[in-house]
Amino acid sequence: ATCGHGCKYGKCMGPNKCKCFPGFTGKTCNQDLNECGLKPRPCEHRCMNTHGSYKCYCLNGYMLMPDGRCASSRTCAMVNCQYGCEEVKGEVQCLCPSGGLQLGPNGRTCIDIDECSSGKALCSYNRRCINTFGSYYCKCQLGYELKHVSGHYDCVDVNECVTNTHTCNLHAECLNTEGSFKCKCKQGYRGTGFDCA
Questions:
Q1: Where is the signal peptide (predicted)?
Q2: What would the pLDDT profile of 112-133 be if each residue is shown by its tens digit?
């Protein structure tokens, strides 16, 4: 089976037919499925969509059960957690709905972990890390764009000279480089390439 357009988060099952991994959708399986919008709703109280999955959490005063339901809890109400809580060995602990969030100093509210600056993010050399609340994603470095090449997606150098996105002087030649470009003044002109006289 060949899928000319590729299956980003899925498997090629037939001529241009993708079978998406759980949590993804679209013709090329390149879109995250928002499980929180599904009917019936996967969570009883609150739902947080994540990349390829989702997390359930409860309103204040309720405790998250293993099956995703929320049970009323006097102890939870007393602790006053931002995103519900769980009881571990008779001790009440507040929960955060994502691995990219951590309990704040007060032990009740959740604060974002900046995976990009903490070094927890795993991005390939040609991608840069962008922090989001509760997570992060890898974006192509400046001067590169995401393209479908030989069966998979990759960050490919943008040829600024061809796309005409360079800032070379009218009397300069544009020379493409990996991730960037250079400007050289034409014969009979002198300057930086951005200014030629």
A1: none
A2: 999 888 888 888 877 889 888 8
d(CA 146, CA 161): 18
Place of tokens 């691995």: 99
CA–CA separation, 144 vs 154, rounded Å?
9
Q: Domain check: are 59 and 96 in the same one?
A: yes
CATH code (residue 14): 2.10.25
Give the model's pLDDT for residue 134. 85
The DSSP code for 37 is: G
Q: Output helix, strand, coil percentages for the chain, rounded to the nearest 5.
A: 10, 40, 50
Quick one: how far is CA 128 from the chain centroid? 11
| Mean per-residue pLDDT, 45-64 | 83
Average confidence score pLDDT of the chain: 85
Q: What is the mean pLDDT of residues 175-195?
A: 91
Same domain, 58 and 18: no
Q: Count of domains in the chain? A: 4
Q: 197 is written with which tokens? A: 């006289």
* CA atoms of 110 and 95, how far apart (whole Å): 8
